[in-house]
Specification:
Oligomer: single chain
Radius of gyration: 22 Å
Largest sheet: 7 strands, mixed
Shape: globular
Helix content: 10-25%
Number of domains: 3
CATH architecture of the largest domain: 3-Layer(bba) Sandwich
Distance between the termini: 52 Å
Structural class: alpha/beta
Low-confidence stretches: none
CATH topology of the largest domain: FAD/NAD(P)-binding domain
Number of strands: 25
CATH class of the largest domain: Alpha Beta
Number of helices: 10
CATH superfamily of the largest domain: FAD/NAD(P)-binding domain
């Protein structure tokens, strides 16, 4: 049995930020990192570029192996954590090893929602092994179908060669239904179709048959013949370890304003954690990189006894799809009390700002050039009033406004 002051389970945004934060404040505490994948941390956001042949595998890595040595972290790569006893402060690994801890951070992320398997030509995308499989599978494909219009399947289709036939099956009435409002989603749908994507909205897969090609039967009654199926039906937070240990769990692992779980020695951050939303005040699993980094830092500080408080997470997703940059910040919903729109896709610059009852900025959708998305994020965080429609006309106007209030 090995003893560490801090044990971290998970080697992505939250885990990495926790390591960096711990070492920024303390070089003496002992730290261990456990992760199921046998490699350094990498960017899942970049995997569609790798799959589409636009970047090599080595460009996916965020750090190299010497990073962990430099940070004084003992790594247990390629190992699953299978048991947790918070009272005894023991974490069990699948090889029978037990790690004792003073504090524990659960930052295991989430898993792709399962889909009926049985074909090598069907794959989700969550881990490096999935990316490698899809890169091999899609390279010779002449037709690719994606199920689910989220931040996994759409970028994969987006980075395929233009001559590949692309189908997108969406169970709901619009793409990015959990990310964008209806108007913004419709603009992107028109752009997708102009880029050659065949949309199947309010539809689903009822059967997949093997043959020379996959034969897909749709709920609408139609059929598709395709070379590969990419499944992106959302993700499920990794809560099994926490639930088995008796920690409070709903959709994710419930955490307070210090990213602490229902046990004082155990913390959670990132896609596995469910905490307060900054705008609505409700608990949610935010599932984005910035939230994971922020929660990882707050958890690390509190594990060191520094008493940091997190005001809440915010939606902050930025992606590129079919040559178009898209950012969704804060509360981007048709349920917002008021919104202000400026620009169009034709002009290459669309902005939609969402306001509360007091005309404070609570969210924004930015389509086109997204360099000013960070300004919208800061406006929501600062609970600032909307500065007027002229502010939407360019980055410099917003930057000047932010300087005035700083």
């Amino acid at each position: 049995m090995l003893q560490f002051d801090i044990v971290i389970v998970g080697n992505s945004a939250a885990g990495l930020q926790a390591i960096r934060t711990i070492r920024r404040h303390d070089r003496t505490v002992s730290v261990a990192l456990v992760d199921r994948e046998p490699c350094p941390a990498y960017s899942r956001v970049l995997t569609p570029y790798f799959i589409g042949g636009k970047t090599p595998r080595e460009n996916l890595y965020l750090v190299d192996l010497p990073f962990y040595d430099e940070m004084g972290v003992t790594t247990f790569f390629g190992k699953n954590a299978v048991s947790l006893d918070p009272e005894r402060r023991e974490l069990g690994l699948e090889d029978g090893m037990t790690l004792r801890f003073g504090s524990l951070l659960l930052a295991m992320g989430s898993e792709a929602r399962p889909f009926k398997t049985g074909s090598r030509r069907i794959s989700t995308l969550r881990h490096m092994a999935d990316a490698e499989k899809l890169a091999s599978l899609l390279q010779p494909a002449k037709s690719v179908t994606a199920l689910g219009a989220g931040l996994v399947s759409v970028p994969v289709l987006s980075h395929l060669p233009r001559d590949v036939e692309r189908h997108l099956i969406v169970a709901s009435g619009r793409i990015f239904s959990r990310l964008l409002d209806a108007e913004s989603a419709l603009l992107l749908e028109e752009h997708f179709e102009a880029s050659g994507v065949i949309l199947h909205k309010r539809d689903d897969i009822t059967e997949v048959l093997e043959g020379e090609r996959l034969q897909i039967s749709l709920a609408s009654g139609g059929t598709l013949a395709t070379d590969a199926l990419v499944v992106g039906k959302g993700v499920v937070p990794n809560t099994r370890l926490a639930a088995g240990a008796g920690l409070a769990v709903k959709d994710g692992i419930l955490v307070d304003e210090r990213c602490r779980t229902s046990h004082p020695a155990v913390y959670a951050a990132g896609d596995a954690a469910q905490g307060k939303d900054f705008v609505t005040g409700e608990t949610t699993v935010q599932g984005n990189w910035i939230t994971a980094v922020e929660q990882g830092e707050v958890a690390a500080c509190n594990m060191l006894g520094l008493q940091h408080v997190y005001e809440g997470s915010m939606k902050n997703n930025i992606t590129e799809v079919f040559g178009l940059e898209v950012a969704a910040i804060g509360f981007c919903s048709d349920e917002a009390p008021r919104c202000v729109v400026h620009g169009s896709l034709a002009s290459g610059r669309f902005r939609k700002v969402f306001l509360d009852e007091r005309d404070r900025v609570i969210g924004a959708v930015v389509i086109g050039e997204t360099n000013d998305s960070g300004l919208y994020y800061q406006m929501v965080r600062a609970r600032l009033p909307f500065p007027g429609k002229r502010a939407l006309q360019g980055e410099n106007r917003y930057a000047g406004f932010m300087r005035q209030i700083a």
